[in-house]
Design a protein that fits this description.
The protein is mainly beta. It is built from no helices and six strands. It is 0% helix and 47% strand.
Length: 75
């Protein structure tokens, strides 16, 4: 499933995730599975994964963060 990680778009349904990755290659492999509930918003701020709950609470789940190299054609 593809999720928006823009910090604005809410998660559409209950999800259990263990890894998140953006289109530009940033990733977070979580130390423990994370339960995202409907309405939660996720973002990568400065390379850190931030989850904002419906009630406004924010937290950074523990995990390994980085950027994956992408193969493919180069212009």
């Amino acid at each position: 499933m593809r999720l928006a990680t823009d910090g604005v778009t809410p998660v559409p349904r209950l999800l259990l995730v263990d890894e998140l990755e953006t289109d530009d290659g940033h990733f977070c492999e979580l130390s423990a599975p994370l339960l995202l509930t409907p309405g939660d918003r996720i973002s990568f701020d400065g390379g850190s994964l931030v989850v904002t709950r419906v009630n406004g609470e924010t937290f950074e789940p523990a995990g390994t963060r980085g950027v994956r190299c992408r193969g493919g054609r180069r212009a």
